[in-house]
Design a protein that fits this description.
mainly beta, Metal Binding Protein, Guanine Nucleotide Exchange Factor, Chain A, five-stranded antiparallel sheet, 12 strands, globular
Length: about 150
C-alpha cells in the first residue's frame, strides 16, 4: 500500500510503500510514550525503506533512542515521523499518526510492553486483542500474514 505522510507544520512530507500497513500494535514503552504517544502508546507500521521518498529532508532531525533505534522527527514542529533500526535494515517504521492516507482498521490489536506503561495509560483492550508485558513474538509481517492483511 502506498502511504503519504507529513508532519503537523507541513515542512516534511513523505511517501513510502507499506506491505504491512495495518496500525494494530500499540507500544506502551517509555520511549514511545515520551516521543510520540499522546494516548500513552505509539503505533508504528511496516514499510520498505528503499521506497521512502522525503520532501523537506532538511527539516528532519533524528534521535538515537537506543543502540538499535533511530527516531526521525520534524525539527520545526516536533512531529514524530518514523523509526529506523539497523536490526531490520530493509524496513522503516512510520508512526501511524504521521500518515495522511486512510489506513485499514485492524480486526484485533496487540498491546505490548505493558510492564513499562504509565499508570495513567489505561489500555483499551477489546475482545480478541492480545496483551504482552514485554514484546510479542509475532512480527509485523507474521501478524499481517496470519490475519490475511499483507499487501
Amino acid at each position: 500500500m502506498n502511504l503519504e505522510g507529513s508532519c503537523h507544520c507541513g515542512a516534511v512530507r513523505f511517501t513510502v510503500d507499506a506491505p504491512h500497513p495495518v496500525p494494530y500494535q500499540r507500544c506502551y514503552c517509555s520511549i514511545c510514550r515520551k516521543t510520540a504517544g499522546g494516548g500513552g502508546f505509539a503505533i508504528n507500521i511496516g514499510a520498505r525503506r528503499d521506497t521512502l521518498d522525503v520532501t523537506g529532508q532538511e527539516n528532519v532531525s533524528t534521535y538515537q533512542s537506543s543502540e538499535s533505534a533511530e527516531r526521525a522527527f520534524c525539527r520545526n514542529c516536533g512531529s514524530a515521523l518514523w523509526l529506523y533500526s539497523p536490526s531490520w535494515s530493509d524496513l522503516i517504521h512510520p508512526h501511524a499518526s504521521a500518515i495522511d492516507t486512510d489506513l485499514p482498521v485492524p480486526p484485533e490489536r496487540t498491546h505490548m510492553l505493558l510492564d513499562s506503561r504509565a499508570n495513567w495509560a489505561e489500555p483499551q483492550v477489546a475482545p480478541g486483542d492480545r496483551t504482552f508485558e514485554g514484546y510479542s513474538e509475532e512480527s509485523l509481517a507474521a501478524w499481517h500474514e496470519r490475519t490475511g492483511l499483507a499487501r
